Fold these 2 entries.
Entry 1:
Amino acid sequence: MVKFLKMLSISVREGTATRKYPFESPLVTPEFRGKIEVDPVKCVGCGACTRICPPKALTLSYENNEATLKYFVGRCIFCGMCAYVCPQKAITISKEFELATWELEDLYDETTHTTVKCRICGKPFTTVKFANEIRRRIENKVPEDLLNVCPECRKKLATRKIGSRVVGVSGE
Amino acid sequence: MSNVISELIEELSRGPRSRAVLSRVFSVCGDSILDLSRRGTTIKMVIKPGCLRAALENIYKEHDLYFRTMAASDERFKEGLTKLYYVFGIDSEGTNIVFEVPVVNGIKVDTISDLFRASDWYELEAHDLLGVEFNGRPLRRLVLPEDWPEELYPLRKDVSVDDVKKVYQPQVVSRISELGVEEVVRIPVGPYHPALHEPEYFELYVRGEKVVDAKYVGFMVHRGIEKLAESMKYDQVPFLAERICGICGFVHSTSYVQAVEDALEIEVPERAHFIRSIVLEVERLHSHLLWLGVALHLLGYDTGFMHAWRIREKVMVLAELLTGSRKTYGIDLVGGVKKDIDKDKIPKVKETLSLLKKEFKELVEVAISVPQVKARLTGTGILPRGEARAYSLVGPTVRGSGLARDVRKDYTYAAYHYVSFKVPVYTEGDNLARTLVRVDEVFESISIIEQLIDMLPSGPIRAEKWEPQPMRLGIGAVEAPRGEVVHVVLTDLYGPYRWRVRAPTYQNLQAVPIMLRGVDLADAPLTIASIDPCFSCTDRAIIINLRSGSINTLPIEVISRRVSKDG
């Protein structure tokens, strides 16, 4: 009948379950996924992470001849997909989770890259590091004059080249 | 019936039960069946809307045929019409029978809600969101608010989110002054009143101490998660799906990826199947421990609640160790998983499980033997077996009423066919039965994880390559802690074209008024909680909660406080 009193002995055995965080270390395992960190040296600004990021916490924008990879931790869901897809292994997942702040700017991390301007229209269209990485990967198999042309101008260029071959109209 | 048709039925059926169903359908609708095909365990029949009802009238008495879900999809820009996909299951064969009903704009479909009562909400939802008209039943607003503009069907492909924003602004503010609620706080649990654990609203009609009837009001704000997914890529949706439920999110992401894998016939490596099963069972453990704690709390036995949650914490830490996060595990991807279970974690898993087994046994023995707990669980909230069947209920709710429905056995998925486990069934149908089902399931889950971890095969954890193809139908089902989750996916080139989520509470909630009739007011909170309801996942939305202050409209937490105060 008094079986439920057994709970007392369990309570005595287990003691206090609550941790005295923040005075004690928090209960975080080595596998915990927290805030991400972008290594500015390894990052080439290709934007793969911005395309997979489910909540769009990572964005890549071109402004004033600079490409900026912006990480807004306020939107981040800590899924780690960016690190999973990063071809340069530039993104690491830290264990940091104490992210509350008074300043909104503290929630932004930015990585800037210098850009390559299109030699025809003058619009910045990719980063210097990404262009170099492409050169390295394709081992200079593509003529250099094509690498410095933005996708839109490249299309026009290709059309003209085909045109010149067919009807003999000279390109450019 | 001609020989050609009999041969076709013979070839496509997966056993005597599906053969019987198909023959019966053909006997009444021979000419109205436009196509019949089978892929894996799914038999699909394209049937003219005029004959759907006649077909179902002829088969609804088949004893193990049950209504799993219905997905309505706007395909006017692909094929010029809207389509309804009715998914029925034959438990004993693990067969899905899909009735694909093409509906030309303006045509009314005969209701089946009197044959399969569970289809009531599905029809109302299709009417609300896509403008499908049904004959022979009253149509009312279910999902959309009462002040939603006429003729604006938000799930149609030609309605953009911006259109909706322009046309509709929720009239929250006027409602507040009408009701005299003192403050508005816009936080994600509900703009009206944030004091509850979960957004929900029941109206209980009470005579004396007895509940005579109950009404559930939900779907007050529909978040439109299905629409959102249409703009996302295949591998982004699992993370969205995981956020449907705050407790059992992994079942949704797994269900979604399984539906895509089914549609695109992606072969998933064995090891990924094992990892998914292990994590799903870890999730069931924490969910059942959470539920038990909440149930004891609602009974006023807070000591039991504290200890249930103390034990649960060990499972949460284990989940983080295995996946990287306590709750939103984030490891499901189409074609596999993205995080492996390393060898050096296995001892820790085993150690946690054996500790868990010992401590949980100790807790349950003590907690269930508390005389007040036992007395209030026994004989309250009775759900008869017949009603449980008629409403196509799922999960521990149906298993507490004597039906052994369990997706893990009936429509096996992931790695469950490698392990041996029991499906606990109790026949009493009361709150105690549903509690004991969950208690037994905790021990079964522990045993399942132990078996899986010992058999974990080596190899890759994700399919290397897969090609998306447009307009393929896939069904993914998972036994969530609270019952069956069914996702239906229609594929497109970059992401899902249409994604239909059916959470277990969507099915189970419709039976709560039956369970509530005749119980004491004091037992109402526990009875509502006994289906382990998950309101957010049912609505896939944020619900606005009203606190009207009137005596017969009380939120669950207020009732339970009142109970613990009064005795």
Note: The first helix of chain A runs from residue 6 to 14.
Entry 2:
Amino acid sequence: MSEATRPDAWITGVGLVSSLGDGVEAHWARLKSGKVAEPVVDETTAAPYSFHPLCEVAFETQIPGRGDRRQMGPWQLLGTYAAGLALSDAGLGDDAAAKADMNLLVAAGTGERDPESDAAIFEEVHDLPADQTGLNRLMMDTLRPTLFLSQLANLLAGNISIVHGVTGSSSSFMGAEMAGVAAVENAVRRVRAGRDRLFLVGGSFVAGRNEHLLALAGMKLAWMHAFKPVWQRAGQGGGAILGNVGAFLVIEEAEHAAARGAHAYAAIGEVASGRGGTLQPVRDAVRSLGPGPLLVMSGASGIEPQTSDERGVLEGLAADGFEPVVRGYASVLGLAAEAHFPAGLALAAIAADRGAAYDPFEGSGFEQPSSLAPDHVLVTTQGQWRGAGAGLLASTER
Amino acid sequence: MMTSAMRDSKGRPIAVVTGMGVVTALGEGKQDNWRALTAGRSGVARIHRFATENLRTTVAAQIGFIDFGGDSSGEMCYEVARRAIEEAIGEAGIGTRGDFPGMLVAAVPPFEVEWPLRLAVAREAASRGSSANDRFSALLDVAGAGDWRRGFEFTQRECVAEMLADTFGTRGQPVSMSTACASGASAIQYGTEAIRRGETGAVLCVGTDVTVNAESLVRFSLLSALSTRNDPPEEAARPFSRDRDGFVMGEGAAALVIESLESARARGADILGVVRGCGERADSFHRTRSKPDGSAIIRALANALEDADLEPAAIGYVNPHGTGTPENDKMEYLSLSAVFGAALAGVPVSSNKSMIGHTLSAAGTIEAVFSFLTMDRGTLPPNINYKTPDPEIALDVVANVAREQPVATVMSNSFGFGGQNVSLVLAREPQ
């Protein structure tokens, strides 16, 4: 298939839930308010670690079955809810036939643990000698069978299939931020190859979990000072603040979307990834783009040196004739692991659709107010440990 | 311009296998595995790596011949995968050491902070007399202050794929897939489709799973998924038998070098087999059970045949998911009979899991390698412990001893808890 005849991929549904609110409208209202954004941060519950808590969510509106809700921990609830939002937003919520053949790509974490069981085991085993036998007994007595299920990475996908009836195919990618990039990249490639036409893609992340704090602490990647936006953390060594986010997108072949009269937020073109920093993925993503203003939704996490490196890459875009207007979305959403890249794309799609850039997410002056009506939006994400990715959205209104 | 002989009937580049490696409880390498597999030797034994008192299941197909440097799942999964890849790349003769000319797709279990690491950090917290007011805060204090970085790297979800990419110099960002027991087949499908889209000439696909630990045994036990037939261990896994009572956990890894036929031919590589078709369908019925009518599995199987552009009659042997749980084997039979009809009676079936256990995330890759060996050698490995056929499962099970029989095309099935079903159609020769 030649480049010219490749089908376009459109974003036709956005499901976004975070500390800032529930849904497209809530995010737009919070982030286009006429002033520098005010993030929602919980700095006390897990002090000295902070995180962006989840807003109030009426899970039953997307997951009506009480039995279904009982089978899920917070991670699966959040993801299944956000997936439902994206389907409804795309006008597919009640289209059982379309959903039955829809392809599901989930960026999945490690499943979820039951913190109460873990704490109970931990309290007791702490007083035991290093003894496997005692640990075995405690686990047999304490772990609960239903929550085993949430221990599997692919059970978010399983729950989405069960609750929303999305069954055409189902893959779960792992690997924190880069799993989100891989999932989106796979959807776009499959659409552009003319193989598949309709995808539900995304992930969710629950930030307050002890497991995540422990892993971040052990990797020495956590920000442990009073809140600052990501660009302002380098002076104190940098670090990430995790954020609760559920982010799903409906990605659809343009012709398929047009035929059913679907609303397109934006077209999604190049998605690029690599093992180094953001430089190469950014170059790949914008390679066919002419100079001019460019809205950049940067996923820089606050972790150093990656965040300063990314700032340098984005500033360097000016040398290629771009006029970047940068918004670092980890400053307002937190770092959302598997959901991070899908969330950045969601914010980018909303901005492309509304034809305006967000107000600055921080007040140091690096992020400037802008009256730009973006034709293109670049979205970046770096892995908290490894890897980087970038994607380019284009307005469908040109 | 690619000639038509390099493309399949749908006009896509043909994806072929040019190198394979495998490690299971039966041994390291294709030769040892094949010898044991065709001799009907079980790899299931009493669990040796940790104490099993208070556990309901005390047997598994563990890898006993590797001295692992550490006890985390990440470290063990890496090491077993590394060995499988060494063998596969060696056979394929592709690239140079540390420079594989294609991407890496890894089927992996979820990695997280496991009890040994958590308790090691906790012991240090206790010895330091941490002033934190609860145990978890003390843990955080110590984890953040001490030098645990290496240990925690193996708790990163992408650790195994990243470290394998470092070792073998694969191109681009490695991809990790985790669709439970379908992961291995998903990885082969992902790689095959990348080749068919023309994105790459070669892909390194690996599936690895070394997660026989106390917590996973407990969790599968709570689901009543595991066999509790602990005596004798080698008779615990009995797929398709009437008296089957669950699966037996297994450990292992397999790697496949998949290339476009064009790039394999261009470098004069031996073609070991073809990934002819991949089919998927997700279930929406229940978190651990299939739709009672089998419709999702049936569609996955039918989609694989459709993707391969083959009729069921072309399949000479089925390498089933065949876990040995009462539910799986019944549903798999039901689905196979719906797809194959009366012709199913003439299709031999044997579950490798009767000998290597259920290798979970690695199963799809390991069983694909065994399927290619089955075609190459013209021998069907047996389904051992098949002494009491289930009268409701009318399959031609290769019972207890290997069968000499040439096979040109195999169907290999993988079904995951959570409802992800993947079926592969594998062939000996490009069509």
Note: Residues 116-147 of chain A form one domain.
